[in-house]
Amino acid sequence: xxxxxxxxxxxxxxxxxxxxxxxxxxxxxxxxxxxxxxxxxxxxxxxxxxxxxxxxxxxxxxxxxxxxxxxxxxxxxxxxxxxxxxxxxxxxxxxxxxxxxxxxxxxxxxxxxxxxxxxxxxxxxxxxxxxxxxxxxxxxxxxxxxxxxxxxxxxxxxxxxxxxxxxxxxxxxxxxxxxxxxxxxxxxxxxxxxxxxxxxxxxxxxxxxxxxxxxxxxxxxxxxxxxxxxxxxxxxxxxxxxxxxxxxxxxxxxxxxxxxxxxxxxxxxxxxxxxxxxxxxxxxxxxxxxxxxxxxxxxxxxxxxxxxxxxxxxxxxxxxxxxxxxxxxxxxxxxxxxxxxxxxxxxxxxxxxxxxxxxxxxxxxxxxxxxxxxxxxxxxxxxxxxxxxxxxxxx
Length: 395
Ligand SMILES: [Zn+2]
Prior knowledge:
It catalyses: Thiol-dependent hydrolysis of ester, thioester, amide, peptide and isopeptide bonds formed by the C-terminal Gly of ubiquitin (a 76-residue protein attached to proteins as an intracellular targeting signal). The chain is an alpha+beta fold.
């Protein structure tokens, strides 16, 4: 609250209190001072006082995948502050109690409490509420951290959506023919946020453009999809020990793909399925970019894990080349990652997160400081990047 605003509302309140209770022996100025003091204290409390966040999470039975993701989200500053400030209580449109959000916030309060003796938090209640909401995650078998991240963010979003659940988008479907790509993309984005709008969308949502090019008539068409993370394929290497770079994964993700007639959608101009090329670009960059490295491939009867090392930049990951042609450099810095060690059936998840002092490894209840050169491995599974402030966020 602005000081001036506070001042004038405080004066008004004092006037009305004093005029309504003329028999009370209290001067307007004394009342003013006390009220103003109270308001200032309340305002100050909103500036969070936090511990260093180096607090672990107990493993309550195969919950390492949950713990690793919670640590990564706990170090996503925009989300953490939104929760700890309880901003969502004023923001939500739903009349239902945001049960999962409340429990998630309690875990964060434990992780960021200023009590220096605090080593670990028990997240059991939060996980129970989560599993009640999503019975799919019940049972204590090894689960996928990426899937959990998606379900968790989706569920939190539903609880704190600023749009009414039954709100129907007023924006009509844009007529594509005469719009420029950027206008078409902006119209599709507006349609999306007319229904789905929350801190989760503010932070994690971006927009992908998929362009199709007909090889017969050269007709171009675009479709736009919202994404909350990018799932990148890992290129094959002749020697799996040499490894690949994140840039090579991004290249493979966005490279032009030839679709046969059988796999192509119908060309609007030819009115039949034709050979088509398809390519993906990032139309709208999210503030928080989560990259999922596709280490797990489903085979017929089993799941295979790739242990190819993927090297990634800690700072200045440039996604500009994968965006619209005129977008320039779009730089991201790493602030958290989730590793998967072991095999498909006997695996373990840990998180590595950055704080003021450097990097810490979060292995359930055990938190240890590590150096930046220990981050690269053949186990990196999810990478959390934040858009640099000096890069303008693009519409
Ligand atoms: Zn065509």
